[in-house]
């Protein structure tokens, strides 16, 4: 009997086609609908439909770039990329119709775009719009004079920015407050899950919540001149959550042996979350059970400290942000960023890959007369976007999403009369972009494709006749990306997940050494900076592990051998996360009354982790290792030794 499972599509493809369980961002849906349809209506009313289409294109770029939560960050996320987009369309329009000069310019822009995309989120969107608008300007005839297209596209970004900032006077600081409150609620869920199988998933949610909160608050702090009371309060409340997060691994260990924490504890943390969001102050009212064990004392002390800080009307404005360190001066960060881009192997590698693919696309359409040929380069740009996922799966999903989007566009172009009917159609299609973008890359492509087709048809009318050429262009662009952007590069087949995991294990070894290093007194009633250094090290380690997990998830969407290798190594990544948790739990127990371990025990664990890191770095497959980790059964490090032995056992595949 034939096995039906063999006829099923591969997992890396079905994973990309499965919609993500993300809520629909209704505010973003409304903004996109208005921002893209209103310019068309104005263009129709003034008998300038081309101008209206260009403004809507600029609004589309703003909608794509509006990915932040805090208002200050949204200003940068929308405004800065628009400047790069304006520069791109200007360069493209200046070389329109100039043959190989246009090919050279667009290829050079692709190199720059790829290199700056490695800086960060805003730079990534800026590089994307720089290249996209250069390709559009070089592929479509733009209205004169030369500065007008940039002005119209920028005006579209202004429309999105104005709609975005309408709520700023009423909700200033609300995203930051909501993010900090969400971090408290995530910690409440974590403590509630202590000792259960859900703990690991809740801990990852806490890491994501803390990452997002610190990114929002610290980004705002980096731009504040002086010390704003609201900012000081939020940062103090966020820092007060860290001891509670540190106590969670000890609570989880206690939960495995005894049972879950009393329900009053997570309920108290949720009440603190409400207090953060509502801005409540006053004396905290905590009805907590009496702690008996070190883990319980750690949770109790951390919770009472957090309650004091949350309800305090005026936190100490000094040392409030020393826990994570202060951001460097702007000129220092600019200098570091420039040096990183110019001398980073990763930025040059991606820039050259993108330039090669764009150069091939532009050369191909220069040699072959392809209708609407700029779409080939546009497809390459979206497929090669570095932070969208696997190049291979993106190429396949892009082709599928484009095909679905072309079906929608074909219906619109065939059945809807051109003119004022374009406005309500655009209202509907634009609303689908943020709604579908939250569901996955293929869904985002399916939503954006008909919008761009409709706008480009308004600029240079071709109607239904552009549907098949657009499909051919998309397939050509996906083919170029697969061959020149994936198959020809060794790292596509020899993924760096092993190196990333080895780095994480080495950092874990350093964290173990730091966690159990002897503390040096720094004056009466004080300790040295060891505790703050441990906090920074642990936060950085969890953030790095989150990035490594994302890299693994991206590798899982690759076809064999990369995907199968990532799947085989996934349990080791989980084991490393458990080692970090066990280290934190042991440190917390020592801080709250447990006997400190023998330094030789910690040194042995550190040595085992460094050996494991070296072995992972030198191999592409799981390998056998020996470990003789022994120690007293009543030692505080016994759970940590068990986790390290489990990690070494995972690294041994056993008999085949």
UniProtKB/TrEMBL annotation:
Q: Where is the Integral membrane protein YccS N-terminal domain?
A: 94-220
Q: Please report the name of this protein according to its UniProt entry.
A: FUSC family protein
Q: Which family does it belong to?
A: Belongs to the YccS/YhfK family.
Question: Could you tell me which species this protein originates from?
Answer: Streptomyces solicathayae
Segments traversing the membrane:
83-112, 119-140, 146-168, 395-413, 442-459, 471-489
Bilayer topology reads: Multi-pass membrane protein
Q: What keywords tag this UniProt record?
A: Cell membrane, Membrane, Transmembrane, Transmembrane helix
- Domain annotation Integral membrane bound transporter: ranges: 363-483
Give its localization: Cell membrane
């Amino acid at each position: 009997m034939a096995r039906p499972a063999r006829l099923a599509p591969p997992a890396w493809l079905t994973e990309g086609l499965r919609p993500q369980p993300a809520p629909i961002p209704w505010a973003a849906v409304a903004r996109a609908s208005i921002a893209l349809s209103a310019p068309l209506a104005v263009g129709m009313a003034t008998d300038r439909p081309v101008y209206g289409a260009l403004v809507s294109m600029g609004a589309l770029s703003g909608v794509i770039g509006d990915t932040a939560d805090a208002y200050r960050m949204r200003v940068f996320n929308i405004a800065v990329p628009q400047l790069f987009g304006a520069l791109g369309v200007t360069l493209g329009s200046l070389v329109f119709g100039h043959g190989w000069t246009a090919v050279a310019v667009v290829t050079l822009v692709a190199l720059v775009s790829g290199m700056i995309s490695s800086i960060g989120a805003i730079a990534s969107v800026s590089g994307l719009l720089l290249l996209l608008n250069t390709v559009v300007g070089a592929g479509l005839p733009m209205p004169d004079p030369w500065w007008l297209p940039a002005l119209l596209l920028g005006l579209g970004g202004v429309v999105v920015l104005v709609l975005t900032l309408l709520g700023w006077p009423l909700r200033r600081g609300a995203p930051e407050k909501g993010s900090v409150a969400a971090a408290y609620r995530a910690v409440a869920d974590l403590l509630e899950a202590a000792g259960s199988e859900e703990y690991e998933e809740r801990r990852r949610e806490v890491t994501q919540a803390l990452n997002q909160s610190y990114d929002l608050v610290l980004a705002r702090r980096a731009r504040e001149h002086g010390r704003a009371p609201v900012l000081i309060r939020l940062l103090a409340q966020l820092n007060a959550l860290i001891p509670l997060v540190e106590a969670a691994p000890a609570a989880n260990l206690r939960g495995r042996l005894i049972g879950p924490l009393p329900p009053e504890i997570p309920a108290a943390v949720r009440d603190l979350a409400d207090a953060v969001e509502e801005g409540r102050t006053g004396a905290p009212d905590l009805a907590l059970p009496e702690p008996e064990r070190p883990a319980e004392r750690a949770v109790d002390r951390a919770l009472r400290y957090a309650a004091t800080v949350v309800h305090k009307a005026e936190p100490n404005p000094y040392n409030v942000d020393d826990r994570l360190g202060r951001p460097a001066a702007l000129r220092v960060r600019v200098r570091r960023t420039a040096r990183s881009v110019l001398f980073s192997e990763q930025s040059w590698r991606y820039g050259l890959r993108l330039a090669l693919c764009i150069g091939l696309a532009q050369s191909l359409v220069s040699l072959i007369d392809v209708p609407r040929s700029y779409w080939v380069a546009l497809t390459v740009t979206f497929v090669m976007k570095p932070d969208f996922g696997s190049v291979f799966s993106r190429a396949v999903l892009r082709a599928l999403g484009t095909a679905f989007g072309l079906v929608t566009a074909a219906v619109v172009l065939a059945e809807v009369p051109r003119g004022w009917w374009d406005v309500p159609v655009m209202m509907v299609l634009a609303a689908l972009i943020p709604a579908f973008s939250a569901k996955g890359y293929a869904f985002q492509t399916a939503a954006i494709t008909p919008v761009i087709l409709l706008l480009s048809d308004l600029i240079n009318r071709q109607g239904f006749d552009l549907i098949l050429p657009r499909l051919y262009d998309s397939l050509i662009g996906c083919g170029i990306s697969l061959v020149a952007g994936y198959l020809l590069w060794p790292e596509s087949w020899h993924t760096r997940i092993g190196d990333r995991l080895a780095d994480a294990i080495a950092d874990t070894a350093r964290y173990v050494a730091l966690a159990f290093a002897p503390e040096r007194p720094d004056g009466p009633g004080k300790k040295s900076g060891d505790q703050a250094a441990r906090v920074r090290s642990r936060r950085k380690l969890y953030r790095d592990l989150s990035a490594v997990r994302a890299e693994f998830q991206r590798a899982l969407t690759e076809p064999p051998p990369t995907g199968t290798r990532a799947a085989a190594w996934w349990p080791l990544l989980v084991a490393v996360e458990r080692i970090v948790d066990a280290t934190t739990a042991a440190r917390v127990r020592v801080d709250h009354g447990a006997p400190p371990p023998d330094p030789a025990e910690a040194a042995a664990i550190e040595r085992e982790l460094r050996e494991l890191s070296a072995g992972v770095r030198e191999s592409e497959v799981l390998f056998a290792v020996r470990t003789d980790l022994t120690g007293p059964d009543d030692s505080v490090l016994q759970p940590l030794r068990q986790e390290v032995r489990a990690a070494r056992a995972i690294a041994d595949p056993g008999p085949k």
